[in-house]
């Protein structure tokens, strides 16, 4: 998208926030809200800090995820002021005051100190952010009802936010292609990670989350966090779950690749991808996400039967007995935006049969969700099932053969539109 068009969308986004914040502040009985960017805490007994990514409600306005010790004041009359931390420092580079169009709508001032700006504040003031950062600031700290209202404001994305998520998906797609090529060329998990970073031009500390890169059985650990330096003697599979942050907004994409010769596992990937595409196509206004999650389990049951992993039981019975949950233990997806698991996703509790589901809304236009079914061979979940009375339905020799491939997850980022949905991932990463 041309920079001029993105700048126009950003201005419209800020104007939307000015109006929405005015309404929320009036409803909550406040004249203004002071928002802290946050700052990276120091490691215990060390002089080094943890990595910082800005506070979500701060990023909603400015999108500058690396800012620390900065403050944003939003008043109900629409005035917005940003105090950017600009210390006199010869140890670190100082963030310059931006020279972008949005600064015509937000007043930007440099400030050497880290405390809240020393100004006269409106009488009824709220202050929100990391409690460690706002403890000395004026105003009511993190009022729950105000935070809930601001969280809800982020549920429906503006055109600017969608454009940012779309660009984050485009950049991440380059990384996923590079990662697949590195795997097929024999790279280790560490090498695949380097290929992903090189293709995206993004450091690990800038990424919206730690990239999950698992070869073989590591693909069965849902949030696998290590990178082996050596490739396995017999590479069988790659699962990569990795995204990009662009102007504060995240993409979150997962792909699974079978090594050459892993025909049965490759067929399972193809089967799960077919199911995943059907679920993406089912996204539309009014769709209950809990029901969509349940539809994913019924689709997985059909795949387990077709692949002969589970036999002699119908699809509904397989789901009712919890057999599909042993192969697919997590939720179908979540909101996506400034945060990877974006806020306000659960207006009602997750159902008992899906305790890890992070999204329980009926879908509305402007929501951005992930669709990420999985099929895994996780010993801690399958072994008890193989020792239960339901073991008669499971093809143990086939399960044992595929354990070494770890598992499959396929994840796209999908925008709910007035007419249905737009897949923000497949535009850039068709397979």
From TrEMBL:
UniProt xrefs under InterPro entries: Creatin/AminoP/Spt16_N, Creatinase/aminopeptidase-like, PepQ_N, Pept_M24, Peptidase_M24B_aminopep-P_CS, X-Pro_dipept-like, X_Pro_dipept
Domain Xaa-Pro dipeptidase N-terminal, residue spans: 11-150
Keyword Hydrolase: yes
EC number: 3.4.13.9
Catalytically driven reaction(s): Xaa-L-Pro dipeptide + H2O = an L-alpha-amino acid + L-proline
Domain called Peptidase M24: residue spans: 164-418
Cofactor(s) demanded: Mn(2+)
UniProt binding sites for Mn(2+) 1: 252, 334, 372, 411
Keywords: Dipeptidase, Hydrolase, Manganese, Metal-binding, Metalloprotease, Protease
Enzymatic class: hydrolase
Classification via SUPFAM superfamilies: Creatinase/aminopeptidase (SSF55920)
Binding sites annotated in the UniProt record for Mn(2+) 2: 241, 252, 411
GO molecular function: proline dipeptidase activity
Statement: the UniProt record of this protein carries the keyword Manganese: yes
Co-factor binding comment: Binds 2 manganese ions per subunit.
UniProt-listed HAMAP family: X_Pro_dipeptid
Function of the molecule: Splits dipeptides with a prolyl residue in the C-terminal position.
Family the entry assigns: Belongs to the peptidase M24B family. Bacterial-type prolidase subfamily.
Protein name (database record): Xaa-Pro dipeptidase
Species, as recorded: Marinobacter halodurans
Primary gene name: pepQ
